[in-house]
Amino acid sequence: MTLTRRHALTLGLALPLALQIRPALATPETMRAAIKGFTGGAEVTEGGIELKIPALVENGNSVPLTVRAESPMTPEDHIEEIAIFNEINPLPDTVRFRFTPRSGRAEAQTRIRLNGSQHVTAIARRSDGTFHSTEVNVIVTAPACRES
After folding, report:
1. Tell me, what's the pLDDT at 111?
2. Which residues pair with 93 in a beta bridge?
């Protein structure tokens, strides 16, 4: 078969469709690496932080979450930062909230996108350099972040 200009044009138009670029997915390993980057490899204690997120989500495009860490929020003892991590979104480091003693409390609300069922982890960094975490398994029936 001889390659004609018509065949070459047809192939040239079909090639971009065959090579669609899709966002890369994070993995549990990339989430652990992101957490290690946040904590500097320090030990993370379970508890001391609360993550409210629905356990079953119909649509992953807008998932509400509230995170709250226990702290007196004094200059000597306060939460400096809370980070939210996920397992399979394109970027595992989802959102970070920074606090000072003047914040009054370490609490934040937002909405995130979830690219399917996964574990969502919240980690709080205290002013004394310790870290506290909690994890919620979220089941998503209609994932976000994916292009069809």
Report:
1. 96
2. 85
Instruction: Say how many Å lie between the first and final Cα of the chain, rounded.
Output: 34
Looking only at the bridges linking them, the beta strands covering 49-52 and 131-142 are: unpaired
Is position 13 within any domain? Answer: no
d(CA 83, CA 97): 6
Reply yes or no on whether the pLDDT at 112 is more than 70: yes
Residue 148 lies in a domain: no
Give the pLDDT band (50/70/90) at residue 144.
confident
Q: Which of 93, 90, 118, 102 is nearest to 34 (CA)?
A: 93
Give me 17's structure tokens.
């469709």
- Cβ pair 61, 89 in contact under 8 A: no
Helix H or strand E segment including 84: strand 79-86
What are the backbone angles phi and psi of residue 6, rounded to the nearest 5°? -60, -45
Name the burial class of residue 76, with classes exposed (0-12), middle (13-18) and buried (19+) by CB atoms within 10 angstroms of its CB. Answer: exposed
Q: Which CATH number covers residue 54?
A: 2.60.40.2470
* Residues 121, 84 contacting (CB under 8 angstroms): yes
Give the number of domains in the chain: 1
